[in-house]
């Protein structure tokens, strides 16, 4: 049985003519060809007339265009083929064969509407793509050609010039629109494209505005939460300060009562009878209810602490004055160098510190009134940078200078 195709022994491609085999050999440098009884598929799309040479190519065409009906013309196009030298034929046979070959294989560019082609080229489409669009869209209008290009822009042969047999090159249908109408149609298409682009830009702007509003709301909410937390922190801080002042006032009141009782004992006076104090209690209560109670200030707490220190060590005036001088030196160093940590951190077990201040009752308490705190297992007194209050330090310096220079300080 004579072969109906040529098969490349190097890559397995099926070729339907000797000419195709020659072109394949020139492109791939393959030279091993043999006759095959397997025909090359010729599936022609019923909708657009596109020929497909394999099932894969027809499936790809269906996926791209949606055309599903194909006419199998494999047997019609299949002709015996041979690599042997053909026998000498008669003149009549040669004429018939030549006529049929030229008639079946002669392909030309299809005729399309020149004005529509010029319009498409003016819109920026290549000549081959515009010709292909007009041919496969029926050569009816500019809009249908543009729609065809949009639908088939992914085709691999979109920019190849279409070819049709001579006998199928039908006459160009006359356009249903006049040149003026075609120009108006082209303008309308451009106007639609611009309008669509503007609408898309407006939509994107609305989306961006929504995003900006959302981000703004989130920032405002975060700021509100931060302010609320700060307000709560300040309220808790003020409450703690009030409680501290209350405890300090109570401590001072108790100390005053103890000092008063001690002075009466030294003067040989009997202790004050609680019954004698009771009648005056309502007056005190009435006075408290009519006048606001002024809280004890830091300066008053410092003064009372220094007075207590001198009272507790009144037998050694030199030691008390040296303690006052040492306290003034520490406080002065912090006030002059608030950023230096070495002046804001004091080792409690330092022998010099213990001899001058630490061993005296009231020395460490004075530092705590100034803002120092015990840290690291009560081994250090430390004043953090954010708690350095220059007003408190200045008040401490003034109270220490008064205690040093006033000879009657703490006597009463």
Helical run tally: 15
DSSP strand count: 11
Distance between the termini: 141 Å
Q: What general outline do the C-alpha atoms trace? A: rod-shaped
Rounded mean pLDDT is 80
Computed structural class: mainly alpha
- Order of strands, main sheet, comes to 2-1-3
Portion in helices: 55-70%
* Low-pLDDT regions: 85-92, 169-175, 276-291
Summarize the helix and strand pattern as letters: EEHEEEHEHHEHHHEHHHHHEHHEEH
Radius of gyration: 55 Å
Strand content: 5-15%
Sheet of most strands: 3 strands, antiparallel
In words, what does this structure look like?
With 412 residues, the chain is mainly alpha-helical. 58% of the residues lie in helices and 8% in strands. The chain contains 15 helices and 11 strands. It has helices spanning 18-28, 55-65, 74-77, 91-105, 114-122, 127-136, 142-151, 179-266, 274-277, 281-290, 298-312, 317-336, 351-358, 363-369, 390-405, and strands at 5-8, 14-15, 33-36, 43-45, 51-52, 70-72, 107-108, 164-165, 345-347, 373-375, 380-382. The strands form 4 sheets. Strands 2-1-3 form a 3-stranded antiparallel sheet. The longest helix is centred in the middle third of the chain and has 88 residues, at 179-266. It is rod-shaped. The termini are far apart.
